[in-house]
Amino acid sequence: TVLVNKMAAVTARKSVHPQNTKYVNAIILVLCIIGLCISTFGLYIEILKEKNPNYVPFCDINTYIACSRALTSRYGKGFGILDKFVSNTSVLNQPNTVYGIAFYTFQATLTLSSSSSAAVVQTVASVLANIGSIYLGYILYYIIKDFCLVCVSTYIVNFFLLVACLFKLKNTVSSDIKKTIRKKK
């Protein structure tokens, strides 16, 4: 408890301005909008490619940089693993871009809350998204042997979203500690 009290005192001395949290929330919302746009564009490519196999999106630059190859691969749906657990036609086995749309919508919704529990959930979700990005990046580079601009763009957005969520979590927890100390006095 002595260590916790010292940490609380140090944290309380550091200024956590509500303005900082507003900026962090704005950054998170902008990143979510970017992620939503990228995911929606990826889904659009998948739908057009499914309807017309000859369709060539502008992100298919050459044989090594082709987003449609990654997005329409077996790994572009259900992260390439859900089909082992559920049928290929299951409602759970969606294109990864659909999961991206749901993730960024969920993150944007959590941004509207100022509670520390929402910040924790948001940060955990961002950590999981980055683990997924590492997994899919590995598959992209080593298995598909492709560079997908849409995919890599979401990995970058996920990384910056994690950084922003960590800042929000720090600000939220610091604010909660300050409130707790004020109540004890």
UniProtKB/TrEMBL annotation:
It is found in: Endoplasmic reticulum membrane. It is a multi-pass membrane protein. Its main location: endoplasmic reticulum. It comes from the Eukaryota. GO terms for biological process: vitamin K metabolic process. The chain crosses the membrane at residues 23-45, 119-141, 147-169. One of its GO terms (cellular component) is endoplasmic reticulum membrane. Gene3D superfamilies: VKOR domain. Coiled coil: none annotated. InterPro entries: VKOR, VKOR_sf, VKORC1/VKORC1L1. The keyword Endoplasmic reticulum applies. Residues 21-169 form the Vitamin K epoxide reductase domain. Signal peptide: none annotated. SMART domains: VKc. Its EC number is 1.17.4.4. Keywords: Disulfide bond, Endoplasmic reticulum, Membrane, Oxidoreductase, Quinone, Redox-active center, Transmembrane, Transmembrane helix. GO terms for molecular function: quinone binding; vitamin-K-epoxide reductase (warfarin-sensitive) activity. Belongs to the VKOR family. This is vitamin-K-epoxide reductase (warfarin-sensitive). The lineage of its organism: Eukaryota, Metazoa, Spiralia, Lophotrochozoa, Mollusca.
